[in-house]
Amino acid sequence: MPEILIIDDDVEACETMVSLVTRLSYNADMAHTAKEGLRLARQSGYDVVFLDVCLPDGNGLDILPALIAGNDPPEVIILTGKGNPDGAELAIQGGVWDYLVKPTSIRDITLTLNRALKYRQEKKGTIAKEELSLEGVVGSCAEMKGCLDLTAKAARSDANVLITGETGTGKELFAGIIHRNSNRASGNFVVVDCTSLTETLVESTLFGHLKGSFTDAQFDRQGLIKAADGGTLFLDEVSEMPLSTQKIFLRVFQERQFRPVGAVKEQKSNFRLIAATNRNLDELVASGHFRNDLQFRINTVHIHLPPLRQRTGDIQQLATVSVEQLCRKFGVKCKKFGEDFIPTLTEYNWPGNVRELFNILERAVIDAGDEKTLYAMHLPRSLRIQVAKAQISHLASTGISEPAGDRSNPLIQTVGQKIFEDIFDSPLLPLKEFKNTAEKTYLGELIRQCDGNIQKIMHVSGLSRSHFYALLNKHKLSL
Fold it and tell me: Could you tell me which residue, 128 or 384, shows the higher pLDDT?
């Protein structure tokens, strides 16, 4: 029997909907707050959830990612008030089944509920497909789950796909996954870098040429479009394609035919198209820098990859996998993370996204050498400075101010205790080695907390300048 959950702070409306659902021979529960609704959803497997946008303890849309994050998420129907079009837009973007504008008639509730249940039944009754091969993809947050669901659907079709996202989010990686899991996996995966397509060489590069067709054509050459015959053509950064080239491409996409330079007859290429861009195509179309008809052609299935700053919950998993791979690559023992390492990574805003994370982790592993633990001090100074400034700004905005030299300060005492926690997680070292490890850990934390400011370092540590630099040299550290 279908299980329905209604999350709405209007007690009377809740009771009416429960009565209606019960008359339809379905089981129903209700909750009047987001917290209680999320608790019930996690405890029981519901088929459909009616979710109000305005709840006493927050916006209902805020718990939407958590509601649909499981392996068998419910279909969610948003309840939104009149005059709130943004609520409907955000709901649809968040992956809900439908939305209803309150007050809602019994007929509309019944129709929407029955359609959602029918869709869910058909979805469950579909023959299970072979799981995707997700080599290279790490992440389990709700945002990534939505991307992977769309990727699976795209892989099982032959439709054109547009992948958008900031630089470094993994657009080419996802394009490769779609290709490897499609019925074209045995064909070529041909990458076209649209930033390098010049108007003078575009036809020769894409369509190929015959010997003698121009001065430097000393032999026949197959173009990239023919190379993708039976496989996938991936247009990387399609937004950078010149307008003149867009016109040429449009006909090729429509007809799957082209003529090599110097040839009389046209050739065919049965390729599957995947395009990617880090820019907003709607804005480019509006400004006249991208053809509207070409955008419609490439945008059949749209997968948007979230930036890393919106999926910080995946950073520890990404870091763990990457560091394990790096340690194997460099032939060193696998390293563990100090208590300050992951929190520092999480506080950074990652303008270069996952690609930047992997580069920084590689630098950290190289910097650590044979050391067993990665601390925040192994991260680039620029990253630690940005994180420290953000933390200080946050403290300032909340009215918290901590004198740097106050040894009785509880905050400083806590930090001092935490510096040594990772050292004590392992069997005790010989005293001399322990002193060296503790000394180096202290220096790294000292530099981080003082933002590399030498005057502040002298004041906090009580060291002389010469003694401080001697310790830096001893432990091979730098400001």
Answer: 384
